[in-house]
Backbone:
């Protein structure tokens, strides 16, 4: 077993994670290892269990069974220690919308007991890089969907986490901001940190991630380095093959001709 | 089109009920209660047939009051077409006029309008002394029901439009809350000892005439005018009603037309100038920023305006009562009430945060800091408020032995904050969705919310009783008074500490489960 201080072992380790909502298993017996220093993509169709998996890995949703370890620390046995070393940008949850962007960053930093001077400096830099500095005194309630995604990412980054977990970080993001976020994520990985992100856009994952796991119906269908999973095909082709795509696209809609 | 919308309304409603048993139970209880009221009204209306016109004409004022109250309740209930929101039709090629007819018909098939129609039709019996009055009553019933329903729709929808903006919501919340004070205060005024208002003193005909001059009474006054042999007045009233209905219909179609083209809630574009509390208190750590955020919310979140206003109104009523009736204990009770209100705002705090609270879980902020931050915010706001109230009461000469009562107030404040801090960690409570009407309540979690509200209200009240008894029983010496106040302060602090610790532990243990509850409430 690794202690948080050791340099070996995976950044994120999911061991037989399962989650049942009533009689339905959203995630079933899911195991996954995310090596350190990788940009790991979690892909899957809608309803595959990506958000449920990431919620269980980040301490937001208690698993029915199984465990999650962040750099050797059990998320559910020692949540405080695990949460201190990871940054999370969840999807589908609200934000404190009555705060301004700058206040939300300050708030997050203070919750993490950071030095306010460090928070202020980092917040200014993050807002600048993410092009939110013009709207830093605007309430988050009045932010566009893309701006909300960006401020959520900034909140996850404020304490320079070893592991960054992002749920659909590129949704509603315009191409210019998307490029900025890509370079931030690459920079993090180049510095030895680990990023795990979910997406259902194959081109995005293919162009950005070095490792990938394909999830469908709450199970892992394939995982490993991108090239191993792709097996000589495009990610899109491989994904459709793994998930089992339907061939009858657009047939029968003759009245649209 | 009309039939389609009526069917849609009921299908939407049955879908809502199927997902939410509490709503079904509440609806059934409400319907049974309303049915009972209606049967009572029908009985009274039949009995009134045989009474002299001085009593019988009271029907006009009663129905005018119903029409007025219907609008007031629609606004308070946030009922700006909640089952069928016209803006949901925005993507469909439908004209405002068509949609308005359909929505009005759908509204008329609801339980309350049907029961209202039954009651108004019974008034035909009340006025059946001659064919002419009976026919007038029938016309009045039709026009009256239409006026009632349309007026409520137009005012509620119109206000709903104003409530799209943050400032509009805040202003209407204040206005509505102050309006809600009027009946309570007039009740206190007329109910005061020696007011001497007797039933026999009321001249129903004069009351009916007065009501008949108001827009809400025009329709209902028709049979009275006919019964009193004033056909011209009846014609004038009927004309006025028709003009009113035309105007309301025109407004209704306009409002629906606007809802069809502006379905998105407006963006306020509100900038915050200067360094707010959050930035200034960041150095105080989690407790500091949580308290700062909570305090900033009072100014920025219009949903809280209603709570703030109610916190002022309740003691206001009690002080008013003390001044009018000269019952001093009600003024002292106002202080205790304000203390209890301080706790109630901590109680529903998690619901007001909603799933945004996930940030506290993700950052691993300890539960006790979450609780303490919220309690601190309540103290920052309510301690000065209570001090001001104390000074006001003292200047009005309503505080005899006020220093001793301080013990009760301190215990009440501590117990209310402590119990709310703990109970609020058991159940997240209830709150309107962000950006929603301050008076709209979320359905679901009904029984749970009622229970937790009762607990947070009852615990401080129960705890205050022994202290209150001690205040009365102990001899009035300076030393004993001082001891009582110190004991009250210590007890109050102990309650707060216990509530913060126990509530914090509960959050640490069950945080994800609470978040799941909040998530379900937002769906």
Residues:
């Amino acid at each position: 077993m690794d202690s948080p201080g050791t340099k070996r072992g995976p950044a994120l380790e999911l061991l037989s994670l399962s989650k049942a909502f009533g009689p339905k298993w959203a995630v079933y017996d899911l195991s996954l290892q995310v090596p350190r220093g990788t940009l790991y993509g979690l892909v899957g169709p809608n309803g595959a269990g990506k958000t449920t998996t990431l919620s269980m890995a980040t301490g937001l949703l208690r698993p029915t069974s199984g465990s999650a370890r962040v750099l050797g620390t059990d998320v559910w046995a020692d949540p405080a220690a695990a949460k201190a070393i990871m940054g999370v940008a969840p999807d589908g949850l609200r934000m404190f919308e009555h705060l301004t962007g700058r206040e939300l960053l300050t708030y997050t930093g203070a919750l993490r007991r950071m030095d306010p001077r460090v928070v202020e400096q980092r917040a200014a830099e993050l807002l600048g890089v993410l092009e939110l500095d013009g709207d830093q005194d605007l309430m988050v309630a009045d932010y566009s969907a893309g701006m909300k995604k960006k401020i959520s990412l900034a909140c996850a980054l404020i304490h320079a986490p070893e592991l960054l977990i992002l749920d659909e970080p590129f949704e509603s993001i315009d191409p210019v901001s998307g490029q900025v976020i890509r370079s931030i994520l690459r920079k993090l990985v180049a510095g030895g940190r680990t990023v795990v992100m979910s997406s259902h856009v194959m081109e995005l994952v293919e162009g950005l991630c070095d490792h990938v796991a394909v999830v469908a119906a709450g199970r892992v269908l394939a995982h490993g380095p991108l090239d191993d999973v792709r097996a000589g095909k495009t990610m899109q082709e491989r994904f459709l093959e793994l998930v089992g795509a339907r061939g009858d696209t657009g047939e029968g809609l003759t009245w649209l001709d | 089109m009309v039939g389609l919308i009526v069917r849609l309304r009921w299908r939407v409603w049955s879908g809502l009920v199927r997902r939410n048993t509490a709503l079904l139970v509440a609806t059934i209880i409400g319907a049974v209660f309303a049915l009972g009221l209606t049967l009572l009204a029908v009985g009274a209306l039949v009995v009134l047939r045989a009474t002299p016109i001085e009593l019988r004409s009271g029907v006009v004022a009663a129905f005018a009051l119903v029409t007025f109250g219907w609008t007031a309740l629609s606004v308070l209930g946030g009922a700006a077409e909640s089952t069928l929101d016209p803006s949901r039709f925005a993507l469909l090629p439908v004209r405002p006029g068509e949609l308005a007819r359909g929505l009005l018909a759908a509204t008329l098939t609801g339980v309350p309008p049907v029961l209202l129609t039954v009651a108004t039709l019974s008034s035909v019996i009340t006025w059946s002394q001659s064919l002419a009055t009976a026919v007038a009553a029938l016309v009045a019933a039709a026009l009256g029901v239409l006026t009632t329903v349309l007026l409520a729709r137009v005012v509620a929808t119109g206000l709903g439009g104003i409530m799209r903006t943050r400032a509009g919501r805040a202003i209407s919340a204040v206005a509505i809350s102050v309006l809600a004070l009027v009946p309570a205060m007039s009740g206190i005024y007329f109910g005061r000892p020696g007011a001497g208002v007797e039933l026999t003193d009321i001249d129903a005909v004069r009351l009916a005439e007065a009501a008949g001059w108001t827009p809400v009474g025009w329709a209902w006054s028709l049979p009275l005018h006919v019964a009193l042999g004033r056909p011209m007045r009846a014609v004038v009233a009927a004309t006025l009603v028709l003009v009113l209905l035309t105007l309301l219909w025109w407004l209704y179609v306009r409002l629906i037309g606007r809802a069809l083209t502006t379905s998105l809630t407006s963006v306020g574009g509100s900038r915050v100038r200067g360094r707010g509390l959050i930035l200034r208190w960041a150095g105080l750590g989690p407790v500091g920023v949580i308290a700062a955020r909570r305090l900033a919310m009072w100014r920025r979140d219009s949903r809280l305006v209603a709570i703030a206003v109610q916190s002022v109104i309740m003691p206001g009523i009690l002080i008013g009562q003390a001044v009018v009736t000269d019952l001093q204990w009600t003024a002292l009770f106002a202080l205790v009430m304000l203390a209890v209100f301080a706790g109630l705002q901590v109680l529903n705090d998690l619901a007001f945060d909603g799933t945004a609270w996930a940030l506290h879980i993700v950052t691993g902020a300890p539960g006790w800091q979450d609780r303490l931050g919220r309690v601190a915010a309540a103290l920052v706001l309510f301690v000065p408020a209570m001090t001001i109230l104390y000074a006001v009461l003292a200047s009005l000469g309503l505080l005899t032995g006020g220093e001793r009562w301080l013990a009760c107030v301190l215990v009440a404040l501590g117990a209310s904050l402590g119990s709310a801090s703990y109970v609020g960690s058991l159940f997240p409570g209830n709150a309107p969705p962000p950006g929603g009407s301050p008076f709209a309540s979320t359905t679901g979690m009904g029984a749970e919310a009622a229970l937790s509200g009762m607990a947070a209200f009852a615990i401080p009240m129960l705890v205050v009783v022994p202290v209150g008894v001690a205040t009365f029983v102990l001899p009035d010496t300076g030393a004993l008074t001082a001891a009582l106040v110190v004991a009250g302060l210590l007890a109050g602090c102990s309650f707060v500490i216990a509530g913060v610790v126990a509530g914090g532990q509960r959050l640490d243990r069950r945080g994800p489960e609470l978040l799941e509850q909040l998530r379900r409430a937002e769906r």
About this structure: The longest helix of chain A spans residues 175-190.
